[in-house]
C-alpha cells in the first residue's frame, strides 16, 4: 500500500479498520508494515480522501 502524504488527514480510521494491524499512525506519519499487510483493501475503501492506494 502507498500513502499520499499530501492527501492524508491522519484521522486514524484506516489504522482502526486494518485486520492485521499493518498500519501505524504517529502524529503526521502513517506507516505501512508490508510484512503484516495482506493487501485486503479495507484501508483503501475506508479512507475518506483517497489517500491510500494499492501498489501495482
Give an overview of the whole structure.
- This protein has helices at 13-17, 42-46; strands spanning 2-3, 23-26, 29-32, 52-53.
- The chain has 56 residues and is α+β, with helices and mostly antiparallel strands.
- The chain has a single domain, classed as Alpha-Beta Plaits (2-Layer Sandwich), CATH 3.30.70.
- The chain has a two-stranded antiparallel sheet.
- The mean pLDDT is 94.
Summary keywords:
Alpha-Beta Plaits; 18% helix; two-stranded antiparallel sheet; alpha+beta
In a nutshell, what does this entry contain?
With 56 residues, this protein is of the alpha+beta class. The chain has one domain: Alpha-Beta Plaits, CATH 3.30.70.
Task: Itemize the secondary structure elements and their pairings.
Layout: E1 2-3, H1 13-17, E2 23-26, E3 29-32, H2 42-46, E4 52-53
Antiparallel strand pairs: 1-4, 2-3
Amino acid at each position: 500500500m502507498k500513502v499520499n502524504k499530501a492527501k492524508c488527514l491522519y484521522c486514524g480510521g484506516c489504522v482502526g479498520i486494518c485486520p492485521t494491524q499493518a498500519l501505524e499512525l504517529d502524529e503526521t506519519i502513517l506507516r505501512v508494515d508490508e510484512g503484516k499487510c495482506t493487501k485486503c483493501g479495507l484501508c483503501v475503501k475506508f479512507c475518506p480522501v483517497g489517500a491510500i492506494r494499492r501498489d501495482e
